[in-house]
Amino acid sequence: MAEQTTPVMTPPSHAAPEKKKKNKKIVKNVLLVLVILAAVAAAAWAIWYFVFTEHKGAAGEPIYDTAQIGSIVSTVRGGGSANAKDSASISLAADGVVQEVYVTQGQVVNAGDPLYVVTSPAAEEALKAAQEALVTQQENLAKLQEEMNALQQSRNDLTIRAPHDGKLTEVAEVNLGDPLTSGFTIAKVVDDTRLKISLYYSYAYENDIHVGQTASVSIPATMTTLTGTVEKINKVERITVEGGRTFEVVFVIDNPGTLTEGMAATAQLTDGSGNPIYPYESGTLSYYQTTTVATKANGPVEQLADLMNYANVTAGQVLLVQGTNDVDEQIRAKQEQLDAAVQAVADAEAKVAQEQQNVQNFSAVAPISGTVVTCTLYPGQEVTAGTAAVVIADNTVMTVNIQVDDRNRQYISEGMEITLNDWNGNTYLGVVESVAVVGEVQNGVTVFPAVVRVDNPTGTLMGGYYLDYEFATAQSLDCVVVPIQDVRSYTPEGAEQPQSVVYLKLQPGESAPDNAIDKSLLPEQMQEEIPDECVVIPVETGLNDDINVEIKSGLEVGQEVYNNTTSTDGSYYG
């Protein structure tokens, strides 16, 4: 079989298209290199323009401000939360069930208005038990007091004193150390400055004799007649041997010093017609007062006065002191019991007051006038001890607690008025009530807490509101002021403090002031921003606020100072 040969065809020529592609690629690469070179050139030009050349000519016009007369007030600002100055929280002291609720949150109440009623058998029982315990303690205290009084009396009985002025009679022989028993008669004290006599008169003269009537008292022994006075009339009935009825009349006479008890005497009275009235018989004089002095307790004689018959004594004079035995020790022990009993009564009274308050809290009334801030009760609710039932706040007067740092403590004082503002734009006038004398260190800064009182009659200020406050620390009125950014500062070579300067604009034909500073002495950055028509002038600054600064010297009203320079796009270079 003969072989079949496949003919081979010659491919067409593509040499021309390949050459065209190569040319396009070369062009593209050349364009990319040109773009890169242009960007590098632009960056280099920008660096040269902004760094190595002055380009103020491309900026807008300089902005100048004119020094004016104004006022500067330096202030301190801060904030604090408002709270009601007076508030009351009523809590339940025992479990119970709510019967009635008379108030709701936000309601305004007056002191004494009913709030709610809660029944609590536990509270009633606690009050009853506290009252019974108080009665027991009071009875115990009364008993101890009686016992103490008895001991004190026993202690006092050991000191024997003269009961009144007079003379001693019938003095017993007593020596130091003698063991005297209760009832031992020491002496009698007689008042002999006055004497008395008892006489009887016929009832026929009943209406002619009265208390205070004077009489002539005759004493035969001294052959003297003295004036006496009727002190007492006793309408007794003494029958004489003749069968006459008589009554007793007691006369008192002053003792001239020559009379004594036992002397015979008589007294003559007169009736309304001046007729004499005589007694049935004479009587005898007796001392006006006679008192027996005797011991009242057992004890040895520890102190003894010079007791002698007819010695004069005065009321209260110590005649004799007996040993105390163990009375003082008993008194000390009883006093300790009394002190403990007094404290127990006080504790029991406090307990009763507390339980009474607890019961009242279950049927409570508003303790103060104000707004109900919280009311957690509703009828039928079972409540437990400790539940805060109602909170009332008197928002008519609020307080704001603020803190002032140690730099501004000197500018705030009690009675000072402070302006406060809330987040809603309301303004309030506060008065500083107190400022701490000793500061507190917080985060490395010493602060002084202060309380500001704010009257709030309309109630617009609520508890918890945050208030911004502001008060002035210093002020300068009618002073030269310029905007605060017009003042620059630098530290001259060799100086310790920075120097404030302004760039003063010279008017056409005006020469630089003598105090002008050579621009070359300023930092390079400051030199670049000074307009050509300006000179550098040193100034002394004072107070400043957020906008202006006080110029104390170096600048006059009406002079223009450089502020800034606008660029062509409206931004600033300064």
List the helices and strands and how they pair.
Elements: H1 15-51, E1 62-66, E2 68-91, E3 96-101, E4 108-109, E5 116-119, H2 121-157, E6 159-161, E7 166-169, E8 179-180, E9 185-202, E10 214-219, E11 224-239, E12 245-254, E13 264-270, E14 276-277, E15 283-284, E16 286-294, E17 299-304, E18 312-313, E19 318-322, H3 327-361, E20 370-375, E21 382-383, E22 388-405, E23 417-422, E24 427-435, E25 440-442, E26 445-455, E27 466-483, E28 488-490, E29 499-505, H4 524-529, E30 534-538, E31 540-544, E32 548-553, E33 560-565
Antiparallel strand pairs: 1-33, 2-22, 2-27, 3-5, 3-21, 4-20, 6-19, 7-9, 7-18, 8-17, 9-12, 9-16, 10-11, 10-13, 11-12, 13-14, 13-15, 17-19, 20-22, 22-26, 23-24, 23-27, 24-26, 25-26, 27-32, 28-29, 29-30, 31-32
Summarize this structure briefly.
This protein has 574 residues and is α+β, with helices and mostly antiparallel strands.
Low-pLDDT windows of residues:
1-22, 45-58
Q: Radius of gyration from the CA trace?
A: 58 Å
Helix content: 10-25%
Distance between the termini: 104 Å
Question: Strand share of the residues?
Answer: 35-45%
Average residue-wise pLDDT: 86
User: Structural class of the secondary structure composition?
Assistant: alpha+beta
